[in-house]
User: Fold these one by one.
Assistant:
Number 1:
Amino acid sequence: MPIYHQLGNIPAKRHTQFRKPEAAGAGLYYEEVFGTIGFEGMSSLLYHVARPTQVKSLLSPYDVTPKIASGNSLMMRKLIGFNILPESDYLDSRVPLLVNRDLTIGLAAPRHSLTRYFYKNADADELLFVHRGSGRLRTSFGSIPFQYGDYVVIPRGVIYQIDFDTEDNRLFYLESHSPIYTPRRYRNHFGQLMEQSPFCERDYILPRNLETHDEKGDFLVKIKKQNTMHPVIYATHPFDVVGWDGYNYPWAFSIHNFEPITGRVHQPPPVHQTFQTDAFVVCSFCPRMYDYHPLAIPAPYNHSNIDSDEVLYYVDGDFMSRNDIAQGHITLHPGGIPHGPHPGAYERSIGKKETQELAVMVDTFRPLMVTEAAMGIDDGKYYQSWLEP
C-alpha cells in the first residue's frame, strides 16, 4: 500500500485544462485515471503528451494457459528451481509452476533486458522477488532500481520494460488477481504503517527519473488477458507522461529491510507477513534472533494446514526446520495434511541463538494445481522426507 507520490508536472486542479508550452506545440496534455476496483480502489492521475488510446493494429493473439499436470493432490513436493533454464526473452523465461484461480506462482531466469517490446498484465498485479541480478523497472510512472532481495510490486495495467545489468538473473514471481497490499493489521485507520509494523514507508523504493517520450511510430505492447497474450501496436510511445500523482503505481521493498518480530517462545508465521490479498499472504523469513525462553524450542511446531496450501521459496542461508534444502528450492505443503520440522531439526534447534535463513512464503486460501513444468523439476521423493532414519 504505497503512500501518496508525485513526479513531473501536474496542473493545480485535477480534471482541468493542462496545456502544453508553446515550444512543445501548444495543445492539451491528456489526463488518464489509472485505478482499480472501479473508482473505489487506489488510483493515480497521469498526464500524457499523446492520447493513450491510439491503437494502430492488433496482431494475432496466442494462448499462454499453464498446462496442468496435477489438479488435486496431497503430495508434498520439492521443486529444484535452479533447474529452470535461462531464456533470452523476458516473457519466455517466465515459467508458471503452481496455479489456482487466484494466482500464479512461477520462476524466471531472463538473460536479456525487456527492451524490444513493452509488457502489460491486464489481469493481475505482479510481485517480482529478485533472487539474482539487478537493474531497473521502467514504466510510465518512472523507473525503480532493484537488486538482490527486492520485492517489486507492479499493479495490473502498468506498461513496463526491464533493464538487467547482467545475464545472470533469477526471479520468483507471483501474478495476483487480487490487489497486493501491505497487511491491514500493520496500518492505522489513516493507512499509515504503525510503530509495531516490521517495516515502514521510509523503506519503500518509489518511482523516480520520469521518462517523457514524444514519439510516433510502431510500439509493440504485449498485453496478457485471460491467459491470452495480445500483441498490440500503439501509434505513440507508451512512456509519454509529463507528470502524475496518486496512490496506484509500482514500488519496491527490500526483504533486508524487514525487521523480524521475535519472542520468548516460537512465534507463528503471521509475524513474518509482508503482503496480503483477498486470496493469499506473502511472508518473509529473515535472519533473526531465536526464542529466548530457557526451555524454548526454536524450530517450529508441527502444523496441520487445513485451510491453505503453503509454498516456500528458499533464498539463502540454512533453513533451520528443513534437511537437504538449497537456494532456489521450492516446497509445496498442500492443505489437508500436516507438516513440520524434518527429523532432527526439532532437536538440533535447541540452544541455538540465531538463524541466517532467508526465504519467501506464500500461503494460499484455495488449493494449488501443479503444472507440467513443475513436475519436470520435482524431486519426487520430498513427501517421504519425514520418515525416521
Number 2:
Amino acid sequence: MTPDRDPIREAHAQWRRHGWDDAAAGMAMVTSVVRVQQLLMERIDAVLRPLGLTFARYEVLRLLSFVQSGSLPMTRLGSLLQVHPTSVTSAVERLVRQGYVERLRREDDRRVILASITDAGRTVVEEATRGLNAEVFESPGLPPDDVARLTELLGALRASAGDHVAEPVGSD
C-alpha cells in the first residue's frame, strides 16, 4: 500500500471484496473512530506529558477542581468519569505520589475515602487546561458546525451503547 492511499478505504474495499458488504461501512466507521482517537491522544499527550500527566489523571484533577470542596469519594469519581474503580485508584495513587491529590477519610463516615486536590494539583490542572484549550479543544480539526454535528452523532452512538446522553452539547 502506498503512503497516499487511505488504509481505511482500502480495508472497506477488502471487506466488500470478501462479501462482507453488510459490515463494511460499520468496520470503516469503527476503525475511523479508533484512528481519530489515536490522533487526538497524540495531541493531548503532547500537552500533558511535559506536565507529568496522562489524560486520565488530568480528568481526575479537572473533576476535583470543579467540586467546591475539592474532594470526592473515590467511588463517585469512578462513576462520574465512567471508568472502572481500579482505574480511578491507579490514577489517584499516581496523583498522590506527584503531590497533586491527597487521600482523606470523610469525617462523618471514616469508611469513605476521599480524593482531595492539593494546591499543587490546582496549579497543574489550570496549566494543563490552558494548554489543552489552546492546542486541542479550541481547534479540534473541524469547523464548529461539524464539531457540533459530530458530537451529536457520537452522542447517539453512546446512547445506543447504553450511556445516558443528555441534550446535544451546545444546545443549552
Number 3:
Amino acid sequence: LMLGVPYEDHDLFQSLSRTLLDNTAPEAHAARAHRGLTGYLAGLATRKAREPGDDILSRLAARDDLTPEQVASLGFMLLVTGHESTANMSAMCVLALLKNPAAAGRLRDEPGLMPTAVEEMLRSLTIIHLGLARAAKEEVEVGGVTIAAGEGVICMLSSANRDEEVFGRTAPGLDPNRPGARRHLAFGFGVHQCLGQTLARVELQIMLTTLLRRLPNLRLAVPESALTYNTENLVYGLKALPVTW
C-alpha cells in the first residue's frame, strides 16, 4: 500500500518477484518475469500520473525529471527488495516465537524488549543466506589468511552473525535481550547498508508486538517437520506458515 501497488495484484507481483529471486529459475523464465514486472510497474506509473494517490509511486510519477520507465525501475527495486525480504523475515520471526513460547510470553509481558528481540532475530535468522560474491581489489589478510588481489571471496553474513568473538557462544533458543545483538550484519555494513533498514525494523516490531497481543494462543497448524523452506532463493524463508489460534 505504501508503494501504491493495488492489493488485488498481490499474487501477480509476488509470483514474478519470487521467480526473479529463484537461483534455479531458467534464464528465459527470469527474463520474462523481469519484463512482466517492469512492464506492469511502468503501466501503473502512467496511471498514477493521471490518478495520483497517497503513495510512493504517485509521488515519483509526479516528478518532471523521471520517465515512467525510470519510475518503474525504482518501484521494481523497492518492491522486490522491500517486499520479499520483509515478508520472509516476518514469517521466520513468527516461527521463531512459536518455537520459543517462553520468549514469546516474555515479549508479550514486556513489549519494551521487542526492539532488541528483533535485532536478535535479524542476527540469528539472516535471511540473506547464500553469501555475497566479491573480488579482492588488492592483497589483504583476513583472519590470518592472505587473499591475493583478484581472488574471489564469498562473504557469508550468516557466519559473520554467529562470530563467537563478537557475540560469544549463542545458546539454542531465542534470547529477547541478548547484549550486543544490534552489531549484526543482516543489513550490510558501512556505506553499503540497506537503505530500508529503519522501515524494516519498525515493521517487524509493530507486527510482532501486535500479533502477540491480539493472538496469544497462536500456534502451528501443522507439525514443524511439515514446513518447507525457500532454500533455492536469494532470500531465505518459508514457502508457507500454516497457523491457528
